[in-house]
Amino acid sequence: MERSEALLARAQRVIPGGVNSPVRAFRAVGGHPPFIARGEGSWIVDVDGRRFLDLVQSWGALLAGHAPPEVVAAAEGALRAGSSFGAPTEAEVRLAEALVARLPGLDKVRLCSSGTEATLHAVRLARGATGRDRLLKMDGCYHGAHDAVLVAAGSGVATFGLPGSPGVPEATASATTVVPFNDLDAVRAALEADPGAYAAILVEPVAGNMGCVPPAPGYLEGLRALATASGTLLIFDEVMTGFRVGPGGAQVRYGVRPDLTCLGKVVGGGFPLAAFGGRADLMDQLAPVGPVYQGGTLSGNPVAVAAGLATLALADDDAYAAIEAAGARIEAELADDVAAAGASMTRVGGMLTVFFRPTPPRDFAEARTCDTAAFARFHAGALAAGVYLPPSQFEACFLSCRLGADEVDAAVRGMRAGLQASKG
Ligand SMILES: *Cc1c(COP(=O)(O)O)cnc(C)c1O
After folding, report:
1. pTM exceeds 0.90
2. For residue 28, how many other CB atoms are within 10 A of its CB?
3. Which of 237, 337, 363, 371 is catalytic?
4. Which of 44, 225, 371, 373 could form a disulfide with 54 if both were Cys (CB 3.0 to 4.6 A apart)?
5. What is the tens place of the pLDDT at every residue in 74-129?
6. Among 145-149, 189-193, 327-331, which is the least confidently predicted range?
7. Is 142 known to be catalytic?
């Protein structure tokens, strides 16, 4: 028996499903997940010694591949100086300054430890600042694993065909209205049906948790206008898109300024770090300045902050140009194979998805019409050919800025093999 398979059996005895986050279990694609021994740049090596080109990149948390020397050195330096103080440090100030400088939506920012926390705190702040309770979110957008947003949440939830989650109180779920992504009329109708009720519109500006679904032209601008007109706050959940679709996230790429922004994944350089921020008048509603409570023992953790700063230093225009070039090559070289498999492909910067339906979906209802059995064959075919893809139709592939020509070739070869296999 392979070591990965043996480890999964052992893990299943002590960890639910053998994994610490559901999609890792490969249930949607069959087979068993490789247990990872180490990462080397764009590659990962499993405990059986198999080497894969990694297009998951820790679900987008890594921008420059595994263990980039600059990030390792920064984290090691911080670690030697003490791993946590629960007291302010200079590096936190530098990271906050760097974030405020890059993102027009941020006047002030607060660090926390996960994307889930970032959206949880942003939603509470929006409710506290507006004195309103209702939340509007989009079908298939994922905002982490907390109650208010675990309604029609795409991604892991969709992968297992769950409508939401047991354990979310009816009262909490019913304070969240869900409308289709890319549908401004539905947003307008919801806001008009309940004037003065909505604290916030929460959206992934590029949906990434139903696979990569770009905003239709004018969609984000329309959300901005509807939010402003109704006194509702616009929250961009840029946990995935921030520093992924460009140096200033989706808000710079599309030129739309949200009231609050959530960050995670890349911002921590592969460590547990996230952030939420926005207009100064809103952020100053947070304790200790204002009445809205938010806090965390490990918030602004020095090792994670050092890794985040080192990662942001790597995330310059050249890095995004490299991602764009690699992505464009993968798209161009696979275009015929994608069409021949009856599939379609979307890409925004370093996010990319092959959808097993002839045209790219515009919303989650369309994404759900994908042939998930064909996706499973695609995934298995690519894995056998040495490319590690996210094990669900409803997740995006992530490109690092350190994909060399050989690695792009490997990605194309593996995905081509997967597309061939998808035909069954
Ligand atoms: C990953 C993700 C989250 C949750 O972040 P965690 O760090 O997993 O808690 C929230 N929103 C979006 C858009 C994400 O992609």
Report:
1. yes
2. 22
3. 237
4. 44
5. 999 999 999 999 999 999 999 999 999 999 999 999 999 999 999 999 999 999 99
6. 145-149
7. yes
Q: Which of 265, 276, 301 to mutate to test the pocket of ligand 1 (most atoms within 8 A of CB)?
A: 265
Domains parsed from the chain with CATH numbers: 3-63+316-422 (3.90.1150.10), 69-314 (3.40.640.10)
Does any ligand 1 atom lie closer than 6 A to the CB of residue 116? yes
**Residue spans of alpha helices (H) in 261-361:** 280-283, 302-314, 317-340
Distance linking the first and last C-alpha atoms of the chain: 26
Answer whether 96's CB lies under 8 Å from 102's CB.
no
| 219 noted as active-site residue | no
pLDDT, one tens digit per residue, over 361-371 is 999 999 999 99
Give every CB contact of residue 74 below 8 A, 6+ residues apart in sequence. Answer: 269, 306, 307, 309, 310
Tokens 């035909």 found at: 423
Secondary structure class of 24 (helix, strand, coil): helix
Q: Which single residue is written with the structure tokens 């080192």?
A: 310
Query: Catalytic pick from 137, 142, 147, 363?
Result: 142
Q: What share of the chain is helix, strand, coil (3-state, %, to 5)?
A: 45, 15, 40
- Residue showing tokens 């070869």: 413
57, 143, 298, best to mutate for ligand 1 pocket (most atoms within 8 Å of CB)? 143
